[in-house]
């Protein structure tokens, strides 16, 4: 059984279409090319600023790769169509921004509950509500984590540049496939529209993961079981005669609904949590700069990690012992590493383009004797090196 | 007891036995719809392995999911058609069927219904219209007749019901028919036609809900509701010559459209083929 995107034909097409080399492109385009290299062959979306170029690139490129672009009637329909397509074997993606991300939350929960691999790119823009439609922000940190209802885990990544977005999108697909779960990519309007040099690699440099399929009829009969003990059930795809039943209601290992037995719900939801917690090595990733001897630690994510690095480099030039910690996977938060670093520093600064969101997550892992301070800016303009450096000097 | 009944039912081979008995109330029209659907599949000699059935939320969503033995996708409220759209693109050679209720497909899901018809994607929708939100306790639906009583229109309904079949026929579907649960044989024939049409097809079934609708509107026996359907059904051919006043409170039944239009997934694949040709991407 071949999952779409796996065929040697796809590799041939990718090689023929995209010569390795340096290109000048937008962050949004980098996300789209990342998806294509990861094997995404189904995109359902609804245009919204500042994510539209992802849809436009996919609409242009997917047919060349024998992939499918669908412009749905709204964001709710987009994520619904993705779930349907994922159950037929496609690697699927959509991209949206603030208001669209809010609309997708219900079916994001459905994807968690039915363990459907998909990638959802949220190009964060200023809010609440329509906010500043064309401006970047980092205000969806907790919406990614807690936007949909119920007890649920989520994996969310946050690229720090266009080049990073290319690779992180590929990683998002690999995590989604490996853990049979939706993965959110928290991108932002600033990087989405920044044009910079982005290197497109040869397909051989790209590591690609495919979802686990049932090895036999027995496994296929338990689409929500745990035959391998890793919490990730093999996925019996539609159209193969397995008569799979999929529901967002609480279900037993065989897929049939049982909303009355407390143990069934407990077992299902705890396993969905466990498969994320136990497979930390699949998704956990962070970057560190000068953390070995740092006294002042800057913790930053996404777009803000770039001026933050600039500020740390300048501070070092001035003899200030500053370091930088960048969680690339923001959910689940790399708390263990954060705790270790928190023990060694005097001050932690958390710059972000919001009024303080990731800082709440950081706070959970550091002791009271550390001075914890947010560096926050809203209004659609990113933080600058100068602004962050000023704060570092202020606590030096 | 239940098992004995099911063992003598000829269509039981199409049902997921471990999910039985059904959760439907006594007297519900849902059983008739399930029976008609199973008979249509049987008469067409379709292999259930070539079927994917998708439904939303509500009583009618249960009719074929989980009870029908096929790949079944039970989705969020109102979104069944959007989920089915993704399934159809992935499995263009399978029959993708949506069975759900009026509240699900025509109210919260109205947008997806309209646009699937406009796109003319090859999905068969069996929309079970019982004029009420049954599972949530009998509230006003977009199909509740003018003047009827529900738990959220306790005095009387002052809204006009949505004419689903007429709307979807106008939106561009390839095939649209409406029957009631009192017209079982016609219903089976229409489901068969709908399954064979290459394009969007809608079969609207006016169905009785004696428990939530009937008992609040002086028809607490299922048979009373069926008599009401029979007495007020008007064939589409005759309805053409009737005034809106004469048609008030009537059920127009029959085939509304049966036509060929370019189908969405076929066009999508054609487009891909053209693009690959244009860029010289086809394998030599």
From TrEMBL, chain A:
- Please report the stretch or stretches of sequence annotated as the Pyruvate flavodoxin/ferredoxin oxidoreductase pyrimidine binding domain: 34-270
Enzyme Commission number, as recorded: 1.2.7.3
Q: What residues does the Pyruvate:ferredoxin oxidoreductase core domain cover?
A: 294-388
What top-level class of enzyme does the UniProt entry assign? Answer: oxidoreductase
Concerning InterPro entries, the annotation shows:
PFOR_II (IPR033412), Pyruvate:ferred/Flavod_OxRd (IPR050722), Pyrv_Fd/Flavodoxin_OxRdtase_N (IPR002880), THDP-binding (IPR029061), Transketo_C/PFOR_II (IPR009014)
**Molecular functions (GO terms):** 2-oxoglutarate synthase activity
Query: What's an example Gene Ontology biological process for this entry?
Result: organic acid metabolic process
Q: Which UniProt keywords apply?
A: Oxidoreductase
Which Pfam family would be a valid example here?
Answer: PFOR_II
Subunit annotation: Heterotetramer of the KorA, KorB, KorC and KorD subunits.
Q: What is this protein called?
A: 2-oxoglutarate synthase subunit KorA
From TrEMBL, chain B:
What residue ranges carry the coiled-coil annotation?
none
* Thiamine pyrophosphate enzyme TPP-binding domain location: 57-205
- Superkingdom, natural source: Archaea
A Pfam family name for this chain?
TPP_enzyme_C
What's in the keyword line of the UniProt record?
Oxidoreductase
Any single biological process term in GO:
sulfur compound biosynthetic process
CDD domains this protein is in?
A: TPP_OGFOR (cd03375)
State the Gene3D superfamilies in the record.
3.40.50.970
Keyword Thylakoid assigned to the entry: answer is no
Example of a GO MF term: thiamine pyrophosphate binding
**What is the name attached to this protein's record?**
2-oxoglutarate synthase
């Amino acid at each position: 059984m071949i999952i779409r995107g796996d065929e040697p034909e796809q590799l041939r097409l990718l090689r023929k279409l995209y010569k390795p080399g340096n290109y000048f492109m937008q962050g949004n385009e980098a996300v789209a090319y990342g998806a294509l290299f990861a094997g995404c062959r189904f995109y359902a979306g609804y245009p919204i600023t500042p994510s539209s170029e992802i849809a436009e690139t996919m609409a242009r490129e997917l047919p060349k790769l024998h992939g499918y672009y669908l412009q749905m009637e709204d964001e709710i329909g987009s994520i619904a169509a993705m779930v349907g397509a994922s159950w037929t074997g496609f690697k699927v993606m959509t991209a949206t921004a603030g208001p669209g991300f809010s609309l997708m939350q219900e079916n994001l929960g459905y994807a968690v509950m039915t363990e459907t691999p998909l990638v959802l790119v949220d190009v964060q823009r200023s809010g609440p509500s329509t906010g500043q439609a064309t401006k970047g922000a980092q205000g969806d940190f907790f919406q990614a984590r807690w936007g949909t209802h119920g007890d649920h885990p989520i994996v969310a990544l946050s690229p720090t540049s266009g080049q990073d977005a290319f690779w992180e999108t590929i990683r998002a697909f690999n995590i989604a496939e490996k853990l049979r779960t939706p993965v959110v990519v928290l991108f932002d309007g600033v990087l989405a529209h920044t044009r910079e040099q982005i290197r497109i690699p040869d397909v051989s440099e790209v590591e690609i993961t495919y979802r686990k399929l049932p090895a036999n009829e027995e496994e296929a009969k338990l689409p929500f079981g745990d035959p391998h003990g890793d919490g990730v059930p093999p996925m019996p795809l539609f159209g193969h005669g397995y008569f799979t039943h999929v529901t967002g209601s609480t279900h037993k290992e065989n897929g049939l609904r049982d909303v009355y037995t407390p143990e069934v719900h407990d077992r299902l939801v705890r396993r969905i949590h466990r498969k994320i917690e136990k497979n930390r090595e699949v998704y956990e990733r962070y970057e560190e700069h000068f953390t070995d001897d740092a006294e002042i630690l800057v913790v930053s994510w996404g777009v803000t990690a770039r001026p933050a690095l600039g500020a740390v480099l300048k501070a070092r030039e001035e003899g200030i012992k500053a370091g930088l910690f960048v969680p690339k996977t923001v959910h689940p938060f790399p708390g263990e590493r954060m705790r270790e670093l928190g023990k060694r520093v005097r001050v932690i600064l958390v710059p972000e383009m919001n009024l303080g969101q990731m800082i709440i997550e950081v706070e959970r892992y550091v002791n009271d004797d550390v001075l914890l301070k947010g560096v926050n800016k809203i209004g659609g303009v990113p933080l600058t090196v100068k602004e962050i450096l000023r704060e570092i000097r202020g606590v030096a | 007891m239940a098992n004995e009944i099911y063992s003598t039912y000829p269509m039981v081979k199409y049902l997921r036995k471990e999910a039985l008995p059904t959760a439907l109330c006594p007297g519900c029209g849902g059983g008739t719809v399930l029976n008609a659907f199973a008979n249509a599949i049987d008469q067409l000699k379709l292999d259930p392995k070539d079927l994917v059935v998708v439904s939303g939320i509500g009583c009618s969503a249960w009719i074929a999911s989980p009870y029908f033995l096929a790949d079944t996708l039970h989705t969020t409220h109102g979104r069944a058609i959007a989920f089915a759209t993704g399934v159809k693109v992935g499995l263009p050679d399978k029959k993708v069927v949506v069975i759900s209720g009026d509240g699900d497909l025509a109210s919260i899901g109205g947008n997806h219904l309209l646009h699937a018809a406009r796109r003319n994607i090859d999905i068969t929708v069996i929309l079970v219209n019982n004029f009420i939100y049954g599972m949530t306790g009998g509230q006003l639906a977009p199909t509740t007749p003018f003047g009827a009583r529900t738990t959220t229109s306790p005095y009387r309904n002052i809204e006009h019901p949505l004419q689903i079949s007429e709307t979807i026929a106008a939106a561009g579907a390839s095939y649209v028919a409406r029957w009631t649960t009192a017209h079982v044989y016609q219903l089976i024939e229409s489901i068969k036609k709908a399954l064979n049409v290459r394009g969007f097809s809608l079969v609207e079934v006016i169905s009785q809900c004696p428990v939530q609708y009937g008992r609040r509107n002086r028809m607490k026996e299922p048979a009373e509701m069926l008599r009401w359907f029979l007495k007020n059904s008007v064939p589409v051919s005759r309805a053409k010559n009737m005034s809106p006043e004469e048609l008030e409170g009537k059920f127009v039944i029959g085939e509304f459209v049966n036509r060929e239009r370019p189908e969405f997934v076929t066009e999508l694949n054609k487009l891909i083929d053209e693009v690959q040709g244009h860029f010289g991407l086809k394998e030599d």
